[in-house]
Amino acid sequence: MLNLITGAVQDRSARGIAAAVSRLITSGRLPAGARLPTVRVVAGGLGVSPTTVSEAWRNLILAGAIRTRGRSGTFVAGPLPPRERLRYAQLRGTRVNLPTDLSTGVPDPLLLPDLSAALRRAGDGRWAGSYLDAPVLPDLEAVLRERWPYPAEKLTVVDGAMDALDRVAGAALRYGDHVLVENPAFPPLLDLLQAVGATVVGVPVDSAGIVPEELRRAVREYRAVALFLQPRAHNPTGAGMDAARAAQLAEILLPVPHLLVVEDEHAGDIATAPPVSLGRYLPDRTVHVAGFSKSHGPDLRLAAVGGPAHVLDAVADRRLLGPGWSSRLLQSVLLDLLTDPAAVARVAEARSVYAARRSTLVAALRERGVTATADDGINLWMEVPDQQSALVALAAHGIAAAPGAPFCVSPLAADHLRITAGLVDGGHDDLADVLAAAVFAFRNGVVR
């Protein structure tokens, strides 16, 4: 094993050693569970100091590539336990906390609207009623319908966007059904579809969302029963459909009456692109999910779902056997936030701040020769030559990023990392320097 490691190392710095070992692990040449030679043995084989190898090992531990077992030695990370097999659990590029965590995909809490006034006003009890009342407060439903991108036959409120996707999938999908999704796609959605036994087919995206010809091919080759997509602020790429692309996709799907479209509008009011939906063309088979976590707060745990009655009725009927309805107290808070001028202005300010943070970081990376996209939302999708090497390099600087692989239904032409650009409040040039160094640390198979 020592010869394998020393033969792979061309740059004998700590970062170079870590990158070389990470590539051996990724390729399978260092299998899970393999015991690594001691620090002193590797240092002697490479002709470097034990301190250099110790630093390389520390970076690999931070990246989750190797694990120490005290006096038993250091080993290549073994098979993942059941929870960590989920794509969602793999989103964190490291197994430990790092000073700067850009792996999360969550909004900046300082940009969320203040809930104090809304909670005080909701405290008057106007939301309280009978267990048999409608699941959505009538005033909230009226506001939501005014905001809806097409006339939805039915509308309800559930406990967040992923809860909505889970409930729609439970109502509409059966084991073995073919389901079309964007490639790349949001990892928890892929986990969810796997859990219900669906066969997932990835459809490539470009800067305007799903590529029409690729959707046409997928529809032709598979009898898919559903298409899951993100109309705006696609996570992770930031892409968004425009009206022309939506019309193209609807034209392709029009002759496929058995296919249900499920839209995850997760970014909500912090998205800069205009609202768009295939429901404008296919209202009788489009379910639109409007989330408020990114714009108004993850702990509101609310999302609105609108679409054809046969799907929404199935969702509502199944909920009667569980929670019944989403908290009407929180619905009252959301209603207040959607109608209070101060809260509306605060969300608009957050939208502008996120746009500025994204564009500033993308511009700084492009100046350094790094390919990255972040057209909308809070995330940035950065191309890297080698995912594991880039994660190791960033961990060495105390930065955590999300690996791109969990987002991919099938491999893309290049590796990527997802960076939560919305959390970067200043220091864009310094961060861009570190990100660029991680990108170019491995070039032509050589760590530089």
UniProtKB/TrEMBL annotation:
Keywords: DNA-binding, Pyridoxal phosphate, Transcription, Transcription regulation. Pfam families: Aminotran_1_2 (PF00155), GntR (PF00392). Coiled coil: none annotated. GO terms for molecular function: DNA binding; DNA-binding transcription factor activity; pyridoxal phosphate binding. It comes from the Bacteria. In the C-terminal section; belongs to the class-I pyridoxal-phosphate-dependent aminotransferase family. PANTHER family: HTH-TYPE TRANSCRIPTIONAL REGULATORY PROTEIN GABR, TRANSCRIPTIONAL REGULATORY PROTEIN. This is GntR family transcriptional regulator. It comes from Actinoplanes utahensis. The lineage of its organism: Bacteria, Bacillati, Actinomycetota, Actinomycetes, Micromonosporales.
